[in-house]
C-alpha cells in the first residue's frame, strides 16, 4: 500500500512570524518539516502561500531572513504571494491600473517598462487634486483599481479617486475593474500590538459606494480557488493532480486563509491561534476549521506524529 502524500500550504505573516518576530517555535517547526522532506521527498511538498501585499517579494524574503528563516527553509521559489498573482493578472490582461499599493509593493510593477508606463503609481506625498494635465488625464483613464495593504494611501483623496473611476465619474462608458490582493478585514502588524484595518475594509467601502456586487471584485489571493490551484501546481509534477495528495492549508485567519475556496477544493483547513486569531474564530466564517492548534509548531508535531507516522 502506497503511503499518503501531502501538499502543505503554509501562511507566513501571523502563522510563521508577526512582523520581524517569529511565532513561538516556528523556525524549529519548519526545520523539522524540511528534515522530514529530505528523508521522504516523495511524500511531502511544502509551499508558503501568503496574502502579504505590503511589500515586494524581495523585501518579504529579507524579512524572513531577519526572522531566522534562511533560504534553506524558505527559498524564493517556495513563496507564492497574492501580490505576484495581482501583477500577473494586470500583465496578462494589459490593464492600466491605479495602484493603491505601498512603494515596496509597487516595485513588482516597475520591473517591466511597458507595463509600468500603463500604471498610475499612487504616492502618499502626491496630491491627486494637484496633478498636471498629463498625469490627471492618465489617472482618469485607468481601467482598473488595485488595492493592497497600504495604510498611507487609504486616505479620502486617494479613495475618492478610486471611487470616481469605479463609479464612472470620469468616463461613464469605460468599465473599470476593482482588484484586490485579498479581502482580509484586519491584521496584526506587530507581535504585541493591536489589530489594524486590512484592505478588505476599504474594498468593501468602494464596492458599496460604487454600487458593485462583491462577486464583481477580483480577488487575487487566498482563499480563491485559482490562487490555491496555481500554488499547488508549482509543487507537483505535470502528470500529477491535487487529488493524488492530501492537501493541507495552515493559517491564522479563518476567512482570508481558510475561506470558501479552500473547502471547495477539498483542502484540510488548519487554524492556528497566533497572529490575528481571536477567541471563537474556529466557528466563524462559512465553515469551521477542520483542526485548530495553538501554533504552527504544535500543528507540525501533530502532523508528523499522526499523519506521517500514524500508529
From TrEMBL:
Superkingdom of the organism of origin: Eukaryota
Pfam families from the UniProt entry: Hydrolase_6 (PF13344), Hydrolase_like (PF13242)
Gene Ontology CC: cytoplasm
Gene Ontology molecular function: phosphatase activity
Protein name: Haloacid dehalogenase-like hydrolase domain-containing protein 2
Originating species: Pseudozyma antarctica
Amino acid at each position: 500500500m502506497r503511503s499518503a502524500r501531502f501538499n502543505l500550504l503554509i501562511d507566513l505573516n501571523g502563522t510563521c512570524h508577526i512582523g520581524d518576530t517569529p511565532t513561538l517555535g516556528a523556525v524549529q517547526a519548519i526545520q523539522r518539516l524540511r528534515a522530514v522532506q529530505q528523508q521522504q521527498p516523495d511524500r511531502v511538498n511544502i509551499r508558503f502561500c501568503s496574502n502579504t501585499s505590503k511589500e515586494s517579494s524581495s523585501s518579504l524574503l529579507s524579512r524572513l531572513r531577519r526572522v531566522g528563516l534562511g533560504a534553506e527553509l524558505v527559498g524564493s521559489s517556495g513563496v507564492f504571494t497574492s501580490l505576484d498573482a495581482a501583477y500577473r493578472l494586470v500583465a496578462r490582461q494589459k490593464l492600466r491600473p491605479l495602484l493603491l499599493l505601498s512603494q515596496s509593493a509597487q516595485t513588482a510593477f516597475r520591473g517591466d517598462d511597458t507595463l509600468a508606463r500603463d500604471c498610475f503609481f499612487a504616492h502618499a506625498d502626491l496630491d491627486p487634486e494637484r496633478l498636471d494635465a498629463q498625469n490627471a488625464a492618465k489617472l482618469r483613464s485607468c481601467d482598473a483599481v488595485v488595492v493592497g495593504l497600504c495604510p498611507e494611501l487609504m486616505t479620502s483623496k486617494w479613495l475618492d479617486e478610486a471611487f470616481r473611476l469605479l463609479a464612472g465619474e470620469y468616463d461613464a462608458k469605460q468599465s473599470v475593474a476593482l482588484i484586490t490582493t485579498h479581502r482580509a478585514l484586519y491584521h496584526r502588524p506587530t507581535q504585541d500590538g493591536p489589530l489594524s484595518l486590512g484592505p478588505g475594509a476599504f474594498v468593501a467601502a468602494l464596492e458599496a459606494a460604487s454600487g458593485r456586487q462583491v462577486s464583481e471584485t477580483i480577488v487575487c489571493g487566498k482563499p480563491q480557488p485559482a490562487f490555491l490551484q496555481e500554488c499547488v501546481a508549482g509543487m507537483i509534477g505535470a502528470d500529477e493532480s491535487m487529488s493524488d495528495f492530501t492537501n493541507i492549508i495552515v493559517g491564522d485567519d479563518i476567512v482570508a486563509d481558510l475561506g470558501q475556496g479552500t473547502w471547495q477544493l477539498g483542502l484540510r483547513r488548519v487554524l492556528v491561534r497566533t497572529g490575528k486569531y481571536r477567541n471563537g474564530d474556529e466557528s466563524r466564517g462559512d465553515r469551521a476549521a477542520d483542526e485548530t492548534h495553538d501554533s504552527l509548531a504544535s500543528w507540525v508535531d501533530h502532523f508528523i506524529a499522526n499523519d506521517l507516522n500514524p500508529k
